Amino acid sequence: MKGGIRIAAITSGPAANGKSALVVCIIARSGVIEGAISAHVMTDGTDSTARITSMIRRSRFREQVKLIALNGIALAGLNVIDIKRVAKSLNADFAVLTRRRPRNTLLIRALKRLSKETGSDTAARIRMVEGMSGLKLIKSGGFFVQSSAELPESVVRLAFDALRVSHIVSRGISTGESKGRI
To answer: Hey, what's the torsion of the CAs at 38, 39, 42, 46, to 10 degrees?
Structure first.
């Protein structure tokens, strides 16, 4: 993947009301922020895949986004994203970047606990998490990366910078002030 592509960096703010969370998508290219789009997803829900796809499709950037960057595969608690389906639907590659090695077993354990506590069916979400385990995990630019394409370190850094801005915006709007690291 070459530099200069448009990256859609997506994060969610905290679930301020306990029911939904703001999702912010920063569109960036070559280190320049070109736009921001947003949506809301249900806390611990199942609507993140559809909301992300819809949010990007209805934007003026829909044809230009070539990489979807996430910091983990869940938004708003345990609202797991079927990132492979989002990427295929939008004809884009994806990258999941984290500072620490992904701990999918902990996410699966939390989903099983959610299922017991609420009676919700979490089997599909668990399969999505398990599907990520099959992807190659590399360390690039100081981050752990799972991606559908080979990404140069410069693109990984740009994706993480865009994720950082997305995190600052979503947290700042949701709570009134941003804090912490991604």
So the answer is: -100
Residue 28 has pLDDT above 60, yes or no: yes
Torsion of CA 113, 132, 162, 77, to 10 degrees: -10
Cα(60)–Cα(153) distance, rounded to whole angstroms? 28
pTM over 0.85? The answer is: yes
Q: Assign residue 155 a region: left if phi > 0, alpha if psi is -120 to 50, beta otherwise? A: alpha
Q: Which of 148, 182, 135, 133 shows the shortest CA–CA distance to 24?
A: 182
User: Which domains, and CATH codes, for the chain?
Assistant: 6-99+137-175 (3.30.2170.10)
Q: CA–CA separation, 180 vs 38, rounded Å?
A: 21
User: For residue range 70-106, what is the model confidence (pLDDT) as tens digits?
Assistant: 999 999 999 999 999 999 999 999 999 999 999 999 9
Residues with Cβ within 8 Å of 151's Cβ and at least 6 positions away in sequence, in order, are 1, 67, 95, 140, 145, 159
Q: Which of 103, 96, 109 is nearest to 182 (CA)?
A: 96
Nearest alpha-carbon partner for 22 in 143, 178, 171, 176: 171
Of 66, 72, 29, nearest to 48 (Cα)? 72
